[in-house]
Amino acid sequence: TRILLTGASGFIAAHILEILLKNGHKVRFTVRTEEKAQALLSAYPEYASNVDYVLVPDIAVPGAFDEAVKSDPPFEAIIHTASPFHFRVTDIQKQLLEPAIIGTTSVLKAAKAYAPTVKRVVITSSFAAIVDRAIGNDPSKTYSEADWNPITEEQAQENASEGYRASKTFAEKAAWKFVEEEKPNFDVATINPPLVYGPIKKETSTLKQINTSNERILDLIQGKYKDGIAQTAVFLWVDVRNVAQAHVEAAVRPDAGGKRFFLVAGKFSNQEVVDIIAKHYPEYKDVLPKERQENDGFPKDGVYSADNSRSRQVLGIEYISLEDSIKDTVASLKVLGA
Ligand code: NDP
């Protein structure tokens, strides 16, 4: 199958690229710069004849994907991952909402206008588009694909983290609306992960530019939380390799169309992460938090749960354990020089 992958230099997308190539797909990827393209290509010399790329410097520009979707041989599927995930913003509208929303709609419009052979578009959404902050940590709540974040345009402007959650919610809503109103030749599937941990591919990152969801692990082994760490804000996690596999399965399995997939391995706490690092990497003993968190890092009344049955049944995902994920994340940080 010929597949277009956007934002391939990202933490998650770099794993998607690897699976696509190893599964024998013919891949075109988009990245912002020539340098990022070359770094990715150099990781897969054996697949050189199955991979090409197009530079898309800014997904927030309408029409950004018009050229990227035109291909001979033509595409059958598109995996759209590119979207800002960081909190270093001064303008929520321009730096978070627009790239997320315009980026997503530009991919869909381009596919409809110029790539009539595309049958499936897989979009990386998020637990951010599912969670409802009014629910807090309520232990009686079980989140699933049926839930939508009720965030408003106004709340989106409150701070960068609400801005990010809104960007994912509004972008995903725009995608489902596009399919309903435009009735294109393709259907859509979304992958909605919570906090993603797991190994960082060395061709995509340096220690100075660690992706947002792994920052905490690097901070822990660099001693930033020596004097204690707060409770985590989100108690659900998943390994990047499962997230990547889900994107590929959702791109090729006919029955994945029209569905959201809540990709969640389970609950975790910061204390559990600390304990795993201490067990496997005793060299960090002196820089990890000295005091144990109360209640092993969970709220004393408990916390919400998640239903991951659709991802197991429809996509065949078998979830990687927190222990393996954190162990492999730290190993990858050591490769980067930590
Ligand atoms: P990364 O920051 O590593 O990847 C983001 C990718 O999007 C990068 O390739 C980045 O390019 C690209 N990008 C961002 N803004 C633009 C823009 N304006 N123009 C062109 N490219 C842009 O993060 P992740 O891999 O973690 O995130 C990938 C996707 O997964 C995102 O959609 C994110 O919302 C989603 N997600 C991530 C979770 C996590 O915990 N990691 C959880 C849930 C969802 P560049 O590097 O050149 O800036």
From TrEMBL:
Gene3D superfamilies: NAD(P)-binding Rossmann-like Domain (3.40.50.720). Residues 3-259 form the NAD-dependent epimerase/dehydratase domain. The keyword Oxidoreductase applies. It holds the Pfam family Epimerase. Keywords: Oxidoreductase. InterPro entries: Epimerase_deHydtase, NAD(P)-bd_dom_sf, NAD(P)_dehydrat-like. PANTHER family: NAD DEPENDENT EPIMERASE/DEHYDRATASE, STEROL-4-ALPHA-CARBOXYLATE 3-DEHYDROGENASE, DECARBOXYLATING. Belongs to the NAD(P)-dependent epimerase/dehydratase family. Dihydroflavonol-4-reductase subfamily. This is NAD(P)-binding protein. It comes from Ascobolus immersus RN42.
